[in-house]
Amino acid sequence: MADSKPYIIRVAVPSPLRRTFDYLVPDHLTDAPPQRGCRVAVPFGKREVVGLVIECTDSSDFAIEKLKPITAIIDQQALLPESLFKLFIWAANYYQHPIGDALFSTLPVLLRSGKALPEQPQIANWRATTLGKGLGPDSLKRSPKQRSLMTALLEQPLISQEQLLTIYTRATLKQLNDKELIELVLQKTKPTALDDLLRNAPLKLHQSQQKAMDAIECHGFNSYLLDGVTGSGKTEIYLQCIEKILRYGRQALILIPEISLTPQTEKRFRDRFNVPLVTLHSGLTDKARLAAWATAKSGDAQIILGTRSAIFTPLKDPGLIILDEEHDQSYKQQEGFRYSARDLAVIRAKQENIPIILGSATPSLESLNNCNSQRYQHLILDTRAGNASQPSWALVDLKTETLESGIGRSTLAAIRETINNRQQVLVFLNRRGFAPTLLCHQCGWVAECRSCDARLTVHRGRGRLICHHCNYQQRTVHQCPSCQSRELIAAGEGTERSEACLQQCFPDTPVLRVDRDSTRNKGAMQKVFDTADSGEPCILVGTQMLAKGHHFANITLVVVLDADSGLFSADFRSHERMGQLLIQVAGRSGRGSVAGKVIVQTHQPQHPLLQLLINQGYSEYAQLLLNQRQLTQLPPYNRLAIIRAESNHANNAEKFLTAARQLAETISPPSPSLGYLGPLPALMERRAGRFRYILQISGQRRGDLQQLLTTLCSKLERLPEARQVRWAIDVDPQEL
Ligand code: ADP
Ligand code: ZN
Ligand code: ZN
After folding, report:
1. If I label 315, which of 165, 498, 543, 615 is the partner at 20 to 30 A Cα–Cα?
2. Cβ 340 under 6 angstroms from ligand 1
3. Atom in ligand 1 nearest the alpha carbon of residue 361
4. What is the CATH number of domain 8-112?
5. Distance 451 CA to ligand 2 centre (A)
6. pLDDT on residue 191
């Protein structure tokens, strides 16, 4: 022992500290020491925690005598494939987040707590390597047996060893394996035979689909933006690309914004393919999540369908990543480990050397810019599939309309006509509750949240006033607390009020509300789908939950009750978001054989942006916004990072950020390529009783900004002002 080198491991633990910790592997564990990527149990402070080995070494910056020994080794084999491990390290560095927290906050809960990965009996299968596929059987002319085996493996992606040994000898397998033309793959389930891969035949692609399909290379890293109007058949392209890579024996990872809202999506994948498919989303039990994770890791699941955090699913044989509705904000995690699943998906595809397809009818300005600079290939589908045509638009001027609960008289007439034609209507309003404000007619008192700079929303059904920012709730009041008047007015409209009004106007037609309140009960959403799918006349009223990807064949009228909130907001992304939302909602109209119509109510019918959007379409609109961003040097033409700080006392957050700015300026002084803005109060300064401030840093080059943030971060941790605040770094922030 005296002269043998110590066995030291660097371990990431779930902690907010931006560093790893060194531990000794005690003698009795060095026979089978833990490897990189394995979990270990370690003493940490007064507790014992589960950590993940980042590095195995024999030296430490700390005195060896001071290092504590690990308590136990949990995994014999790395929990994460090396490529995924690299993604985590990349992400932790890029997003300035502690590696331990990044790893552990995304692992299935049961693995975080040290539970063993379920053991799976494995079946040996063989498949052709890339080299084998390239050379083909003709290179084996002199050995008919090898040639025949090679041919079989080129026709079918995976064949079990058991089956092969009924025809070929072990020696033949070994010869081809030695030539690196075939390789062994261990899996739990038997592979689906190629003939059985499809449950239903693919559709015949229409012309622009075929053009896009031909452009997609299913080998090696390539990024594609599939920019197709709603209903143009993007999903069919996903399905056909997946089929290709399944035939190579590889797995497809598909990310979508929401699973529960779009059961049709899952069904379409299941209807097409006869292969094991797992879903990963927040609605799973811990056990189900672990099982899905484990089958993705072992390669038994060939299609993995998940929401944001599924980007961290381990895959045995990744072949393709698809990210649908790539503009959707839900891909950005807004707290804790603030990563963008969209951006990480591209990084992951690159590291795995596989293609990635980002799809949307309303691509983000970032992705459009990546097409302009040729980082992504831009594939455009500009017509709807089948018989469907694009909906037509009409603007209703709220200034001159007689309104009933925010619905114009001409709008009501259009709804009536649609119902009389036995079609369906979707009414969109991005505000839940009955009314956004409760005010006193006598003295002007307004019901406000005690902890936020916000008004309480009236929820009439539940008889409550609720803050939509901190979830504070109280029973509704019937008397003004300020002047005791009983003349309280619920002012403005929420979905609950629109629902009530529409039900009154159309007593014989089902009116179904879809928002976070109405869909809290399991099955509520299913009822909506069932009614809509029945094709009978009905009116759906709801928030943006209704805008997400659902295919309602008989909706021919979409009404946007209030387009104005998106026109006037302090966030530089608000116009982009408004355009995306309007186009997405409009896209629910006329997906069947009857042409659709969209009515947009606004006080600003002449607003140039609104005019541009509905007359020229989203791509012209987006191009104009891109030009504006370039002029003002905002993303995607400049990189942004925000340091957020919040505290119970208004001064502390601001003081911390002032100190942060001073520190940052000593590391990188302001220059034409690096600028500072702030500290400024956040758009909502006080939320949940805490005062929130931001410091914005913008840089022309990603590398400069990252370097500054890395140096700054370690210094910020030690600032005395840091003790009084909660702070976080948000790289590529999506909201201010
Ligand atoms: P997107 O994903 O672009 O919104 P979908 O893939 O949902 O569009 O397609 C819209 C509708 O058109 C679906 O009902 C789909 O089955 C149908 N469709 C797609 N491609 C074709 C095709 N090539 N031929 C006939 N119908 C198609
Ligand atoms: Zn009053
Ligand atoms: Zn509040």
Report:
1. 165
2. no
3. 3
4. 3.40.1440.60
5. 21
6. 62
Cβ of 230 below 6 Å from ligand 1: yes
Mean pLDDT by 10 residues, the chain (736 residues): 74 90 89 90 93 90 88 91 93 94 92 84 78 85 88 82 77 90 77 78 93 94 94 93 94 90 80 90 85 91 95 96 96 95 98 97 97 96 75 91 90 96 94 95 96 95 94 95 95 95 95 88 79 90 81 88 84 92 86 83 93 93 96 94 93 94 95 93 92 95 93 90 92 90
Cα angle 92, 94, 96 (rounded to 5 degrees) comes to: 60
Topology (CATH level 3) of domain 194-381: Rossmann fold (3.40.50)
The span from the CA of 172 to the CA of 625, in Å, is 62
The topology (CATH level 3) of 122-188 is Arc Repressor Mutant, subunit A (1.10.10)
Quick one: which H or E segment has residue 547? none
Quote the CATH superfamily of domain 639-731.
Ribosomal protein S10 (3.30.70.600)
Which of 210, 236, 323 has the most ligand 1 atoms within 8 A of CB, as the residue to mutate? 236
The whole-angstrom distance between residue 81's C-alpha and the CA centroid of its chain comes to 22
Say whether 392-432+495-629 and 194-381 share the same fold.
yes
Q: Is 228 in the pocket of ligand 1 (CB under 6 A)?
A: yes
Q: What pLDDT shows up at residue 226?
A: 98
Computed from CA positions of residues 243, 209, 361, 425, in that sequence, does the dihedral angle turn out positive or negative?
Answer: negative
Provide the strand spans (E) within 14-147. 21-24, 39-44, 47-57, 72-73, 123-128
Could you give the CA distance from residue 389 to residue 384 in angstroms, rounded to a whole number? 6
Q: Which is nearest to 713 in space by CA: 259, 87, 98?
A: 98
- Burial of residue 260, with CB atoms counted within 10 A of its CB: 0-12 exposed, 13-18 middle, 19 or more buried: middle
For the 392-432+495-629 domain, the top CATH level (class) is alpha beta
Give the residue whose CA is nearest to atom 12 of ligand 1.
385
Kindly give the distance from the C-alpha atom of residue 464 to the centroid of ligand 3, in angstroms, as a whole number: 14
Q: Is 66 exposed, middle or buried (0-12, 13-18, 19+ CB in 10 A)?
A: exposed
Pocket test for ligand 1, best of 207, 234, 235 (most atoms within 8 A of CB): 235
Q: Residue 583 carries which side chain, given as an amino acid letter? A: I
